[in-house]
C-alpha cells in the first residue's frame, strides 16, 4: 500500500508545480492579459460570430495527460474571448456593467491564491473583517445607521432576492397570506425583482404597477392611492420597490417621496440601486438619490458603478438582526465556528456557505486608486451622457428620450413618417452596427416602440469613445439612407 501511495503522490504533485513552473504559467497569463488590455483602444466592441464555430468548444478535449500551458492560453485567447460582446472596451455602450478594472483582477488573483474561506469568522477572521469593512463603508456612503448590515453578493439579482426574503419574514407573511399580499413597483423595475418573488415562493403575490411620469419615474401620489385602495379591498400591502437607475432609461424614482408613503403605511421600502447607487459618490448623485437613507434595504452593484469585474453585488439591510433571522441555521459540524466576533459572518446573513473572498476585488482598487478617482470617473460619465444627448438632439431625424438623469441615453432614428417602418429601419441599423463592431449599443422596447440605449458606465469610456459612437452612428445611418425612397411604401419591409 505504501508504494502505491508514493506512486500516486508523485503523480498528484503535478497539481503543485514548483516555482519555476508557476512563474512560467503566470508569465503566459500576464503577457496575454497585458496584450489584451493594450489592444483595447483599437479592439472591436463586438465581434460577430458563427454559432457552429463557437460551439466547437463543446468538443474541446479534456486530456488524460496535460498539454503545454502556452497551447491552453492560446485556445483561451483565440476561441473563448473574441466572439460576441467585448465588455472591456470603452466603446461598449450596451449593458451596464462597468468594464473590469485590472487592479480588481489582481485582487481576485490574490484571493484565489491565498484561498481564504470568507464565510465564517473563526475560519478566516481577516477575510470576514475585510468584507464587513466594505459593507460598513457602503452603509456610511448611503447614510445607513450602525444597526445595518449586509454582504457582498454575486450581483443584484442575488442581493434583491435576499432583500425580498428578509422583507417577507420581517412582515411575518405566511403562505396563506401570499394571494392577498401586494408588491408595488413600476414597469421599469428590473425583471430580477419579479424573478426573486417567484423564487422566494411569492409568485401568488399581487403585483401592483404604479403609473410613471414622462421620465419613467414612479408617481408617489399614485402609489399612495394604490395602497389605500388595496387596504380598503382587504389586501396586505407589504413591499414597495423603487428604482435608483432603471435599466432601460436610467430613471430614478422619487425616493424621498416614496419613503414617506411607505413609512405612513408601514410597508417595507426597498431600493434597487444596482446601477445608480454609486453615483452617491458625486454631488449631483447625492441630490438625485435624496432619501435613500430612509429605505429598509438597498442593493448596489460594484461591478457597475465601481467598474469591477462581473460577480460583484452588495446588499444593505437597515436592521441586520432581520437579515440574521432569515438566514438562521443549525449544523452540528459547525459548532467550532461559533465565536463571539463582534460582527456577523457572511454565512450567518446570506444564502452562501461556500463564500468567495469577494472583498479583495473591491478593497484593493479603492485602496490603490482612492475614492476620488472613482468619483471623477462617475462625474465624467454623467457629463458624457449629457454631451451625447445634446449631440444626438442636433442630428437630423433622431428622436431622443428624456434628458438623462444618470448615464443612459435613449434614442431612435425616424427617417420615415410611418412608425412601423422606422422600427424596422432601426433594427436594420442595429444590425449594421453589430456587423461593423466598432461600437456596441443595446436596444429596448418602450410602449411598443424600438429604442437604442447608450449606457455610459465603463472606466474606459471617454470623450473620444463617445465621439466615435456618434461618428459610426451617422456613418451607418447614411449608408442605410442610400437605400431609402422617402414616402415610398416599397421600403416598408426592408431586408
Key structural traits:
globular, disordered C terminus, 12% strand, alpha/beta, Aspartate Aminotransferase, domain 2, 7-stranded mixed β-sheet, 495 residues, 43% helix, 4-stranded antiparallel β-sheet
Characterization of this structure:
- With 495 residues, the chain is of the alpha/beta class.
- The chain has two domains: 262 residues, 3-Layer(aba) Sandwich (Aspartate Aminotransferase, domain 2); 120 residues, Aspartate Aminotransferase, domain 1, CATH 3.90.1150.
- It is 43% helix and 12% strand.
- Helix 15 packs parallel to helix 17 and helix 16 packs across helix 17.
- The longest helix is centred in the C-terminal third of the chain and has 23 residues.
- 42% of the residues are buried.
- At the first level of CATH, the class of the largest domain is Alpha Beta
Strand order of the largest sheet: 3-9-8-7-6-4-5
> What is the CATH superfamily label of the largest domain?
Type I PLP-dependent aspartate aminotransferase-like (Major domain)
How many beta-strand runs? 13
Low-confidence residue ranges: 486-495
Largest sheet: 7 strands, mixed
- Report the order of strands and helices: HHEHHEHHEHEHEHEHEHEHEHHHEEHEEH
The helix/strand class is alpha/beta
CATH topology of the largest domain: Aspartate Aminotransferase, domain 2
By DSSP (H or I, 4+ residues per run), the number of helices equals: 17
The gyration radius over C-alpha positions equals 25 Å
